[in-house]
Amino acid sequence: MGSRILGLVRELVFAAFFGAGVANDAFNIAFRIPNLLRDLFAEGALSAAFVATFSQTLSKHGERESWRLANLINNALIVVLSVIVIAGIIFAPYIVDILMGSTADFADPVKAKQTYDLAVRMTRILFPFLLMVSLAAVAMGVLNTKDRFGVPASASTMFNVGSIFGGLFFAYLLAPGYVSKIISALINRREVPLDEHGASDAIIGMAIGTLIGGMLQWLIQVPSMRSVGYRWRPMISFSDPGVRQIMRLMAPAIIGSAALQINLVVNTNFATSLGSGRVSWLAYAFRMILLPLGIFGVAISTATLPVASRAATLENLDEFRRTVSSSMRLTLLLTIPSAIGLMVLSRPIIALIYQRASFTAYDTNQTALALRYFAIGLVAYSLVRLLYPTFFALGDARVPMIASLISILTNFVVATLSVDYLRMGHSGLALSISIVAIINFLVLFFFMRRKLGHLDEGEFSATFGKVLIASLIMGVLSWLTSHVIENRFGTERFSLLLIEVGASIAVGLIVYYLLVRLLRVSELDQITGALRRKLRKKK
């Protein structure tokens, strides 16, 4: 939760300083490939394959062999990813070409060329981020397997701390006049016209800060790695059985974990062709989706994987099934109301968080539109993040690969239809990502059910129905609260906007809790029981 909230603060800084102009579009394009590779190598295929193999090695062969495996993987990553990073720096212009297409075809070729040049510079700065975050992912996998969750969870918080403070520091060094002007506008609560030249200099500093954040995400976990017994050793072997198993799992998994990021890359190409600002609107909206996805979806998935991996290693499929089924129902309880809340309160939430300095009311409306369509797929995003790594625990990376290939094709078809034929603009691209997530989940669910015989579908359907009813009623009452406050008092001032959003969310939470309690959703007892145990421990 701390990580996602700070991630939101990071996006708030970007919105205030860079709005939805050339500089921010260029940053999002430049960060797309390192971010894609991070999901493929670090937080996707590598993380899932490593945790499954490390857990098996620890259970069957003891700590000595598991530490040897961790060293072999770390050293192999340093070698392989260093080559990829150097290649990325050298071939940055070609990478940006693939993402953007021909700038001559854009609505504003001059702005497109400015975006291209700036994106190439930042791509070269950001590529080393891949190596740092991959080492951080291995450390996170080791610590989670050792039942250490606090420090790994805090690691991504340190990424945002480094990105914000390091980024602003270097932004001020590179463009002191521009940064001072934006800070003055924030203090005086006024909008300022976007200065593209100053923004282009300042955002280079934010790219450097992102690199610092990636380094901190890895370094903060090093002391904890030592405390659980890990010691670095200069060894490397690509023929080791454990390394080969991870590589064997990763090969199809690189495709299997790629769906969301590859689809975002494809959609970036579509968005840049629609004109300046579209990439930024989609990025700001997707950040709002990442908040509940990270707090609920990723957190549940992270806690589920080590337990599921141990059950799979011991061939205890009943325990494996119970763990996965329970986690899926818990995900429904937390993400369905989040999705509906984001849909009905999209405009005031975006205005409250982003609308200041260089981010205008027009940017708010366009970002809110994208957010509504992204929210359609939030529940599916979260369930995919849960189901995907459980296949690795069973030693199966083929199914995620099949699901990913289907969803990539689906995204291209839906994006083409929505942009070229339905003329939905950037909101059609958000819709395509949601449809992809839903299809991806359905494929993963179907194959997991075949593997396990059943997934307690009756309980899953009952929880889904009860939670959906409670969430819809919550959404109506939250929207009415927002509508009444806005019509009665207006939202010209920040304080009024804060009251509108705060009151609407408070009403929604109270109504949802009471309805879920009334409908006897058992997963609510699971959450409240866990909270009570935590509070008793603190006392």
Summarize the structure.
With 539 residues, the chain is mainly alpha-helical.
Descriptive notes:
By secondary structure, the chain is mostly helical. It folds into two domains: 2-455, no CATH class; 456-539, no CATH class. It is 85% helix and 0% strand. The protein has 23 helices and no strands. The protein has helices spanning 2-18, 22-42, 45-61, 63-90, 92-100, 109-126, 129-145, 150-174, 176-187, 196-219, 222-227, 241-256, 259-274, 278-313, 317-344, 346-354, 361-375, 378-393, 398-421, 426-452, 457-489, 494-518, 522-538. Helix 1 (2-18) packs antiparallel against helix 14 (278-313). The longest helix is centred in the middle third of the chain and has 36 residues, at 278-313. The relative contact order is 0.11. The mean pLDDT is 84.
